[in-house]
Structures are given as structure tokens and as C-alpha cells.
Amino acid sequence: MKIVTGKSENGIPVRFLWEKEDAPDAIIEVPIFSGKYLDIYCETGSGTPVICMNCGKSSELEPLGVREILAVISKKCREWHIHSCNIDLNVFYERFGKTALSQAVLGLMLGRYSYSLKSFLEEYTGDKTGKETDQSCCFYITCASPEIPEDAAEALIVEAQELASDMIFARDMANTPGNHLRPADFRKYLCNFAKDTDIEVQVLEYEHLREMGMEGLCGIGESSDFPPCLVVMRYRGNPDSQETLGLFGKGVTCDTGGYCLKSSKSMAGIKGDMAGAAAVAGAMHAAAALRLKLNVTACMPICENRISSSAHLPGDVITSYSGKTVEILNTDAEGRLILADAIGYGIKDEKVSAVVDIATLTGSVWTALGYTIAGAMCNNDTLYGLFERGLQHSLERYLRFPYGREHLKLLRSNVADIKNIGGDYCGTITAGVFLKEFADGKPWLHLDIAGTAWGDPPQYAFDHPGATGAGLTSLYYLMKEWETK
Length: 485
Known about the structure:
Elements: E1 2-5, E2 12-17, E3 40-43, E4 50-54, H1 63-79, E5 84-88, H2 90-96, H3 98-110, H4 117-125, E6 138-142, H5 150-175, H6 183-193, E7 200-204, H7 206-212, H8 215-221, E8 229-236, E9 245-249, E10 251-255, H9 275-289, E11 295-305, E12 317-319, E13 325-327, H10 335-348, E14 354-359, H11 363-369, E15 373-378, H12 381-394, E16 397-400, H13 405-409, E17 418-419, H14 427-436, E18 444-448, E19 454-455, E20 466-467, H15 472-483
Parallel strand pairs: 1-6, 2-4, 2-5, 5-6, 9-11, 9-14, 10-11, 13-17, 14-18, 15-16
Antiparallel strand pairs: 3-4, 7-8, 8-11, 12-13, 15-18, 19-20
Helix pairs in contact: 1-3, 2-3, 3-5, 5-9, 8-10, 9-15, 10-14, 12-15
């Protein structure tokens, strides 16, 4: 699939239709068909094909709707075997400016996404034995505005294409069954993914982690025959700066819950518990590929959480890499244990200036916010301000949870410095507060994407059943804000 600026003589045009409204300033076109938002068909009555797309009510359209609309067009062009398509985005640019172009490109690319294990293995192992099933298509985009010169439009398209490609990688990782994505497999894919960039990758193996005293990561990983590791990525886009942003992503490739076994209902999604690490890797790739001027270190603890004779038991006490002791009262609260070790390593060994962690951490967050809003916590308003400004471009939604001393009290232990769960309430907050205690007073931002990382059925037209790639664009735009702060 190609996305370029301009028009093609052979391109099938797209006509955007709007539902009638009473408002006098609304954009109104008389629809050829009686449809609803995102309904689409190809008009061939006049002899010249025209794709007709219903955009709903003009007053209700939001920037994210542009991504949905273009995703549906992209899907249908593939289904209808259309190889050239002309799309005039001016009607959206007048409403949303440059954001419309970025969202359109994301929609065109993500709309064609699908997952199958066979295709995944062919793509990532290089064993392409099957025929190419994707129909090639070139989308010609026009946006006749003096405010977007051709070179600026091209730059926006390149950026959006990079982000979409990285989201596809993140989706592929999280969609892959656990028996095909052991910790060693995930590590290999992450290393290969970074090869075409200026990212330096280091892998800390299990034996080294054990010598270093990472009892959180090693203790969880020891429950499996497939050993854990810590993948460290370093990108130095601004060698003149003394600051380094730290990104930390949870990489549990199989999470049974350990001895605190998950319910049968929760078992189907345990393969996607590494979505945080996948989002971090994708954001790192985007930052390096687009040459952002900042320094970033990413730490991704990777392991499985299973039941075995060496697995943690409720009541066990471990020592984290930072030196804090932790009482484990719930073995299914393992993500915070491995992230605590990774954060400790990032602060002590990598000297990061700020901590940003992202994880499918708590069921409490999707109980509270559902599948389209993620949870956030932060101890620094300046850092959160950068994050919020980035959200204006990523268009992901987060709710910032408050916290106080009373939440830390819920984590007090009689036998250790801290316990890994609180009470039967405030689960999202206490999980975040637990991680804050390992940030060593650094500016800290915590993102809980347990609800938004997975959608089956999908919540948006640009999603496919399964992994969404949530958090990746928000991390990328946070880095863009960081480089100009």
C-alpha cells in the first residue's frame, strides 16, 4: 500500500456524505443512499465508480472520526480490489487542521490490519511460503491549503506511516499466542525490530539478573521453563543534553496469575500481557526512525508467570533491585514486581531523569473506565503537562487518578518495606503508588492500559479484534514534547 500526495487519473474518487441537520452552518449534502455513520458503498450507475462514505452528522465529527472514516475506506478498497483511490481531505482539514492528515494516514494503514499466526510466522521468521494476500493499493491524498506546503504534508505522511507501522508491530506481538512468543522469542523480535535504527540494544540474561539481585523479575520468571530477561534500548538523539527520559514497559508474555490463578474468563487474554513493552518498543522505533532530538532509555522486563515448584507463594518476601523488600500477597500482581526491578535498574544504572511506565496492570482500571479510556498517575505536573499536550495529537484518552498518603498506608507490610497489593478497593491507585515508591523521587508518569490494549469486539473502526497498540502514539508524542520543552 502506498500513500502519496496528489491525484491520479485512474484513481476512484471518494465522496463524503453528511446526514442532514437543522443547524444552518452545518455541512449538508443530499445522500445518494439512506445510511448511517460509517456506511459505505461504491456508486457505479453513471459508469464512473465513486466511493460514497457516510460521515454522520457534521457537528458530531471528532478528529478520531477521520481515522475511522479512512479506515473503513481502506478496508473496502481492499475488499473491492480497488488499486487506486483519490481522496480530497479538505473538508476535514478545514475542521481539524494538520491533525486531519495524520489521522487519515493512520486510518488508511490501520484499517487494513488483520492478524493470523501463519502470516505472523511468515513475516517475522522470514519463511514466506504462502502467496501475498494483501491487494496493493495507492491512495492519492489532496489537501489544497497554503498552510500545508507539499514538503510539510509529506513529512506528516511519513510520520503517520511510521507510527502506523510501529502500531502494527505492537499489535502483532500482543496478538501472538504465548506458545509462539516465549520470552526468548519476544526478545529476538525486539532486537530485530531495532536493527534498522540508531537504537543500541542490550539484553541482560537471567543469570546476570540473578547475580544483580533482581528478585522480582527473576522470581516471577523462575516459575517458567523459559527464562526471563531484561531488554534495554538506548537512543541518543541529543548528545548535548544531560537528560535521559526513561520508558518502562511490562513484558509478561504469558500470565496465568501464578498460584493466585486467574479465573477461566480471564485466561483468554493472558497472551497480551506484554502490550506495554510492545508499545515502548514501537515508540522507541518511531523516535529513532524520525530522528527526534532527545535521549531515551527503554527497559522492558520480559518473563512468563506460571505455577511451578519455584514460583512465588503468597506470603513470600523478596528483595527488589532497589533494595526495598516486598511482601507478595498476590502472585497475579506480578507486573509491578518486574517493573519495580526495571525502574530500579533504569535509575541506578542508566541514570534516567524521569520515569514513564506503561503496563496492562490492573483489572480495576477497565472496570472503572472501560475499553476506550486508560488510567494515568503522575507526581509531577510539568511532566503531566507535556503528556497532556502530546495527547492532543495522539488522541488517546486518559484519566489522571489522584492519590494520597492514605493509599500508601494500604501498602504497609508488617514483614517488609511494602506489600504488592492494597485492600479490596482502589486497585488501580495502589498499583500506581507501589510503582511510585520505586521511582526514587524522580518525575514519574504511570499509564495503565489494561482496558485499552485489547478490544474484542473492537471499539473503533480502525481496530481489529485483539490487540490495539494502545499507548504507543501517546509515548511518541510525549517524546516530541520532551525534545522541545
